[in-house]
Amino acid sequence: MCLASIANSEQRKDYAASQVRSRSRPNRHGTGFARLHARQNHRFTAARRTFSSSRPPQRWAAQVCCRPRTLPKTLRTRFCCGPDQKLTWFLKGRRYQRILLAFGLGVLAGLYVLFHRWANPGTSSDLMQVWIGARAWLHGDNPYTAVRAWQQWPYPLLYPFPAVLILTPLTVLPAAVAESMFIGVSTSLLAWVITREQVFSPNLVVFVSAPFLYAIALVQWAPLLTGAALTPWLGFLLVCKPTIGLALFCAFPRWKTGIASGLLLALSVLIWPHWINEWRSAIAEAPNAIAPVTLWGGPLMLLVLIRWRRPESRLLAALACIPHTTLAYEAVPLFLVPRTWAETWIVWGGTFLAFVGHRDAGPYESQLAWVRASGYWLMLCAYLPCVALVLRRPNVAPDAENVRVTPA
Fold first, then answer.
1. How far apart are CA 174 and CA 254, in angstroms?
2. Of 60, 213, 224, 402, which residue is most buried, by most CB within 10 angstroms?
3. How do the domains of the chain map onto residue ranges?
């Protein structure tokens, strides 16, 4: 409508008066560049509110990338930057650093085991007995008698039937690939949980320690169980090796871990009710389990009960009283004790000295003497120094003090 198109004089007067009122009305945004700047600020605020409330969908991201100047700096970096800048933003995130670190260590450990098995095809590992037992059980045979009939292992199956159930999915793979995947997952889990409080934690020294390298060379369960003890929803794995598993549960007791372990035990008994008798007769044929408290200097480990509120204190006390194979690979959980770089290198040096001293002090007259000598070396070089580290700390729970051994 224009003024010339209005024929009635009264209507023309009313129209002219309305135009005058509209021109005299103040504009909150002003005119020209001021109005454009206000609109940009409005879009900027709306984008910030949308990003802070929830993660923006991909359609929203595509729309706002067309107007990068209207976005906060964090959004422009995430959605409107080049590949190099996106990679820099990815690497600066703490969670992504943990993912890359855990994945990288797992891949390296898995490749080491894979190449080691292919270079030495005649060697056997600790996991192979469980793998053989799982394949025999899938074919309807007794896993304990099947491992006893296997010529490359001098003992029957020394693990409980829940370990066979857990390892059953890996029986579809070749033995070397199954061992590589087992160690890779174990290493990644351990790296993930010990970097919960700090990405570059002193506890990462465990991956260059003699116990860990010995454990992955023999494809042992210690790295996996140590990581599972710090992850409540994986606590049922502690049942697979009750010796070290019980010690870790005493250090980090959780209702989720106890319930999950009980359900796994109940399932195993439901599937095969007679496996407990088979397992007891099997471990009676391999007298390699020794309680460190029975060794020279072993009772001194019980001094840590003065600091019973601390998880590392309960861990050392349980390791002292529970019979287990006192070889170097069972010392992987000891790296949960140190809290500083100096303490970590003390434990690293002690375990390395125990491993080298036990290896060079042979030969031994029997396997029992070999295991017992390893217990003496670990007691002198690793267990007792860890006791000294624990006694220097106050008797407070992890909730009252920020420690790195807090379960993830």
1. 35
2. 224
3. 94-400
- Three-state secondary structure along 219-287? CCCHHHHHHHHCCHHHHHHHHHCHHHHHHHHHHCCCHHHHHHHHHHHHHHHHHCCCHHHHHHHHHHCCC
Q: Is 33 exposed, middle or buried (0-12, 13-18, 19+ CB in 10 A)?
A: exposed
Q: What region, left, alpha or beta, does residue 290 occupy, with left being phi > 0 and alpha being psi -120 to 50 degrees?
A: beta
d(CA 332, CA 125): 18
Rg value, the chain, Cα? 32
Q: In sequence order, what DSSP letters do the residues of 66-114 get, joined into one string? A: TSGGGS-HHHHHHHSS-HHHHHHHHHHSHHHHHHHHHHHHHHHHHHHHH
Is pTM beyond 0.70 here?
yes
Which pLDDT tens digit goes with each residue over 105-129?
A: 999 999 999 998 888 877 788 999 9
Per-residue pLDDT of 5-44, as tens digits, reads 445 555 555 665 565 555 544 444 444 444 444 544 554 4
Tokens of 33: 């560049």
> Do residues 268 and 165 make contact, with C-beta atoms less than 8 angstroms apart?
yes
